[in-house]
Amino acid sequence: MKKIAVYPGSFDPITNGHVDIIERGSRMFDELIVLVAYNPTKKSLFTVEDRLAMITEVIKNYKNVRADCFSGLLVDYAKNAGANVLLRGLRALSDFEYEFQLALINRRLNRDVETVFMMTGYKWFYTSSTIINEAASFGGSVEGLVPEIVDRKLKEKYKK
């Protein structure tokens, strides 16, 4: 059976911590879907289309990785995609409680879908989209913390 995993997140924007999880996840699974989870009640810096375009650029060299977006229950998306794994990245202990709650509700909603936690590389423990956005908004350099395309898009966004 083909092992398909879904790596969901807002990816607003995608960071090198996310890329670390994607790279390692691509070696663990036959197919990895980077899923931009669209939440219309959440204010985002980049549109879903912008985030998908940036992710698509970042993953272009991974033959078994693709990007998609979805609004709704994650386990429904996974089932429709034929995925049996939800891949979740953990940075620090503070992430675990929230991620554990999500894993439990997803398990209750669909017992055929497992959640796999992966620790991000040590260089990215304290990197988050929120911190990246805040630093960039005040003119701080985020070079090396995000893919080049994201660095350019952040600079364009905050020039205005």
What are the salient characteristics of this protein?
alpha/beta; 6 helices; globular; 160 residues; 44% helix; five-stranded parallel β-sheet; Rossmann fold; 5 strands
Short description:
The chain has helices at 16-28, 48-58, 74-81, 93-109, 129-137, 148-159, and strands at 4-9, 31-37, 65-70, 85-90, 114-119.
Task: Outline the secondary-structure elements.
Layout: E1 4-9, H1 16-28, E2 31-37, H2 48-58, E3 65-70, H3 74-81, E4 85-90, H4 93-109, E5 114-119, H5 129-137, H6 148-159
Parallel strand pairs: 1-2, 1-4, 2-3, 4-5
Task: Describe it.
By secondary structure, the protein is of the alpha/beta class. It has a single domain, classed as Rossmann fold (3-Layer(aba) Sandwich), CATH 3.40.50. 44% of the residues lie in helices and 19% in strands. It contains 6 helices and 5 strands. The chain has helices at 16-28, 48-58, 74-81, 93-109, 129-137, 148-159; strands at residues 4-9, 31-37, 65-70, 85-90, 114-119. It has a 5-stranded parallel beta sheet with strand order 3-2-1-4-5, with helices on both faces. Strand 4, helix 4 (93-109) and strand 5 form a beta-alpha-beta unit. The protein is globular. The model has no long low-confidence stretch (mean pLDDT 94).
